[in-house]
Amino acid sequence: MPLSSLKQGALTDVFSENAQLIEDAMHIPLCEDSVKRDLTVAGKPARIYFVDGMIDNERIAHYMLMPCMQTPPRDLSPEEFIHTALPVGSVSHTQQLSELLLRVYSGDAALICEGMTGAVICDVKGYVKRSVSKPQTESVVQGPQEGFTETLRDNIVLLRRIMRSPQLISHASSVGSRIPTRVSVLYLKGVAEEENVKEVLRRLEGCNVDYVSSIGMLEQLLEDDPFSLLPQVIATERPDRAASFLLSGQILIALDNAPQMLCMPISAFHLFHAPDDSALRWQYGTFLRFLRLFGLLCALLAPPLFVALTMHHTEGIPLSLFTSVQEAQSRMPIGIFPATLLMLIVFSLINEACIRVPAVMGGSLGVVSALILGQAAVQADLVNPQLIVMVALSGLGSFVLPDYPTTIALRILQLLLVIAGGTAGYFGVTLLLFLMLLHAFSRRSLDTPLFAPVIPQRTHNPDLITRFPVWRQRLRGYLSNPASMLRSRGRMRGWEEK
């Protein structure tokens, strides 16, 4: 039975009715790990409900069972009982069955007692969880080495260790009508736009689905245009990068059982920023960003331009290179156009295989596949040697991008551009690029233009493509509250002599 269909405010002060209602909802005794424990509290019958394996047995024994059984006979209201009898750090009272079930199946314990209205919920979680470890997909050379885990509370704590301020707001919510999953919306009060916060909460409330299994599924439910190839949300597993988003006025969405947080709204420039850019000196960061931009151009344009040049615009090739290409191609049974598509697909296949196989085999598989397939294809006169170089160059270019979903979009666009170059030459490549730019410039992230603050132009932090020095970044990102855009009102290097 979906939790949304459970009767709200159903718990009363009648012990037997409350017990029957909870046990029917938890399928006791049919469900073996749904546990009930009878005891006496203040001389009255009581019962504790929890899920076996989700709670810490020592905590429930020392902080619930013993204090409850040692409470002398007297009439206690829920508030008095919470304040005088239970030494648990986090304890609350509820009269709603749906909230009780959500808390119990999250690792808490529920206590009902004769004469007490509703139930008391105690935090005695003790389930198995992964410890904090290095990020898997956002590794850095210089910077913190902690990554988010699958536990929502631990992730928020990691973020609060960095941002020790009461202005960091954590708004609790849930998604899923049949199996609710806890969600937390985090933002800096006064820095984030209130309209953006309200819009995120509105979209979360409008997620009409029975269960959200992953952060990627939640992203698809919240993004502006689900049919666009361009990402409109960034997922990060680094607390330091999440903190930088908050300082820029953006909003984070954390999901239980997900080792990443979503960031909304974003700019397209965020897709090219690496987590350690701000940790490096501005000259190094600028060089690396231009290197990523060059890699993007190589990944997107090298194969299409090679196909267009060799098939439709041979007059633009130097004579020596043209002779070499044609001599090699004369022995090939496959034309350059289909061979390029084939090699790009094979390269993507190798990349996907390296991700899916066990880690101890991934590196070896990539090297062996590239050597065997590339060398064998050339020696067997199946593909042009120059084509192998172009495909390898485009592959290296796609790997320098720090955002994994962007690399997948890049591969799809790459194939489309190769088809355009093979069928219509430079004209086809140029036309498709023009249509792609029109599409990109019209996309939005949380109702904000994706390519702002450049298109359209807005006041912004200069840290977009070039990595400006920290002391020159006096403004926050344009996504923040206009009243809080200034990061500093004085000299940021105040120790320098004027």
Task: Explain what this protein looks like in three dimensions.
There is one protein chain. The chain is α+β, with helices and mostly antiparallel strands and about 500 residues long. It has three domains: about 5-120, no CATH class; about 150-265, no CATH class; about 280-445, no CATH class. It has helices at about 15-25, 55-70, 80-85, 95-105, 150-160, 195-205, 215-220, 240-245, 280-310, 320-330, 335-355, 360-380, 385-400, 405-440, and strands spanning about 35-40, 45-50, 90-95, 110-115, 120, 170-175, 180-190, 235, 250-255, 260-265, 445, 450. The longest helix is centred in the last third of the chain and has 38 residues, at about 405-440. The radius of gyration is 29 Å and the shape is elongated. Residues about 1-5 have low confidence and may be disordered.
Strand content: 5-15%
Our count of domains comes out at: 3
In total, how many beta strands? 12
Strand order of the largest sheet: 1-2-4-5-3
Percentage of helical residues? Answer: 40-55%
Low-confidence stretches: 1-7
Distance between the termini: 70 Å
What is the chain-wise order of helices and strands?
Answer: HEEHHEHEEHEEHHEHEEHHHHHHEE
Outline: elongated
Write down the overall mean pLDDT.
86
Number of helices: 14
Class inferred from helices and paired strands: alpha+beta
Summarize the biggest pleated sheet. Answer: 5 strands, antiparallel
Query: In angstroms, what is the radius of gyration?
Result: 29 Å
